[in-house]
From TrEMBL:
Domain Amine oxidase, chain residue ranges per copy: 61-401
Any one Gene Ontology molecular-function term assigned to this protein's record: oxidoreductase activity
Functional description taken from the UniProt entry: Probable oxidoreductase that may play a role as regulator of mitochondrial function.
Keyword terms of this UniProt record: Oxidoreductase
Quaternary organization: Interacts with COX5B; this interaction may contribute to localize PYROXD2 to the inner face of the inner mitochondrial membrane.
Taxon lineage: Bacteria, Bacillati, Actinomycetota, Actinomycetes, Mycobacteriales
Source organism superkingdom: Bacteria
Organism: Mycobacterium talmoniae
InterPro entries in alphabetical order: Amino_oxidase, FAD/NAD-bd_sf
Pfam families, per the entry: Amino_oxidase
Protein name stated in the entry: Pyridine nucleotide-disulfide oxidoreductase domain-containing protein 2
Gene: crtI_2
Signal sequence interval, chain numbering: none
């Protein structure tokens, strides 16, 4: 079953399995569309001081969609599982909606909002970077250099330098000090506020609040496995079944059942490794062959439904998990096992070390409903500009959330530019 940007096209896919669910999906998509009309202006702005234009646009849309407000409220007070089962019957559709996206334990109230992610897919075209995700930071680095900036690699920041209560630069692990008018930290706010910022710089209440920003409280962690192949992998049987020419190598693919998603969450929260770990898979070289030698493929899988604090340590299950993933993928992709020439399994400790994210949390901060907007990463620390002069936060741990959207960086940069040009702040203006 394929999900398309046009929900009517998706409904036609669903109709093949359940005419009743197809009709329900169109009504469901209308609700998602209303949510996007209301929420998008606020998602694209400041978390605590949205522009008057954004507020006006949201209020206008609230009035326009007043009939949808009551059913929309259920997304924010009901569970992910509850919403799915209230709306849909067919197990294939239920399974797909359980996979998009797995943010929090599906049985808990207040987790149904995750399904609004599907509305984003309907509204905004998903895209990938030619050459892989690394192409984006390369492009940003080139832009920075073109404007006279510099990029330092393998230069780990040991500490933020604080002078007179303001951040005035960074100290690297080799002792080198770099002075700066401002420091904008795109790493996890947990790292910035608790490891890099000297103790006592924040007020006592904010320092204590920063120390308990959640990164593993959903009960679920992250798993990523990268594969390299000597040839191509195909989904011949499933492509043939569809009969419409869609190459299933190209989209994100999920095949785990609805019950496997539910059990995976129950196991993860109970600190057990699921017997079947639900994951998504993608073959980047299917739409961008430049990412591998001619005639060869790469593939990666990702799961957000593994225990964040497992009873059996990560180190003891690494090889077993890698084999489990291969065994499953080989049931769907032709030549998967035979052509495999490289594998890299990232569990939470690996992600934490490689990307400097506590708990291996790719969102930097747990994606609870009440941990977004003015509470991301925490109340009093969500405005990009921190209470410490000269220090700004950005990245996945700030509004609106993680993912490769560029919105946190854009909004933080706009805030810094406005502050640096404010005549009421001459000291900061001179530091720029």
């Amino acid at each position: 079953m394929a999900f398309w940007q046009d929900p009517r096209r998706t409904a036609e896919e669903i109709r093949h399995f359940s005419p009743r669910d197809a009709r329900a999906f169109l009504k469901f998509a209308t609700l998602l569309d209303a949510a996007m009309d209301i929420g998008l202006p606020l998602l694209l702005g400041h978390p605590t001081r949205p522009a008057a234009r954004a507020v006006s646009a949201a209020v206008t849309q609230i009035a326009k969609h007043r009939r949808e407000l009551a059913p929309l409220t259920r997304f924010f007070v009901s569970g992910h599982q509850e919403i799915i089962e209230e709306w849909f019957d067919h197990p294939l559709l239920r399974a797909a909606l359980a996979a998009m996206p797995p943010f929090c334990w599906m049985t808990q109230d207040g987790t149904g909002w995750a399904l609004i992610y599907l509305g984003i897919c309907h509204r905004i075209m998903n895209a990938r970077f030619q050459g892989g995700s690394v192409s984006l930071p390369r492009a940003l680095a080139a832009c920075l250099k073109d404007h006279g900036g510099d990029v330092r690699l393998s230069a780990r920041v040991e500490e933020l330098i604080v002078t007179g209560g303001a951040v005035t630069g960074v100290r690297l692990s080799d002792g080198e000090e770099l002075s700066a008018g401002y420091v904008m930290a795109a790493c996890s706010p947990v790292v910035t506020l608790n490891r890099l910022l000297p103790e006592g710089t924040l007020s006592e209440d904010l320092e204590r609040r920063a120390s308990v920003i959640p990164t593993t409280n959903t009960g679920a962690g992250n798993l990523k496995v990268d594969f390299a192949f000597s040839g191509r992998i195909e989904m011949t049987k499933h492509n043939r079944w569809r009969k419409d020419g869609l190459d299933l190598r190209e989209p994100v693919v999920s095949w785990h059942t609805y019950d496997e998603h539910l059990q995976g969450w129950n196991d993860s929260v109970a600190r057990r490794w699921p017997a079947k770990i639900p994951f998504i898979s993608i073959v980047p070289t299917a739409i961008d062959p430049t990412q591998a030698p001619d005639g060869q493929d790469t593939c990666w899988i990702w799961s957000g439904i593994v225990p964040s604090r497992p009873d059996v340590p990560w180190s003891e299950v690494r090889e077993d998990i890698g084999e489990q993933v291969v065994n499953e993928c080989a049931q769907y992709y032709d030549n998967f096992r035979e052509a495999e020439i490289g594998r890299r399994v990232f569990l939470a400790p690996d992600l934490a070390e490689r990307f400097n994210v506590p708990g291996g949390n790719v969102y930097h901060v747990d994606p609870f409903l009440l941990r977004f907007g003015p509470a991301r990463p925490a109340i009093g620390l969500s405005k990009y500009e921190t209470p410490v002069p000269g220090l700004y936060l950005t990245g996945a741990g700030t509004h609106p959330t993680g993912g490769i959207s560029g919105i946190p960086g854009q909004q933080a940069a706009l805030r810094l530019l406005r502050r640096s040009q404010d005549p009421a702040r001459p000291r900061l203006a001179r530091r720029s």
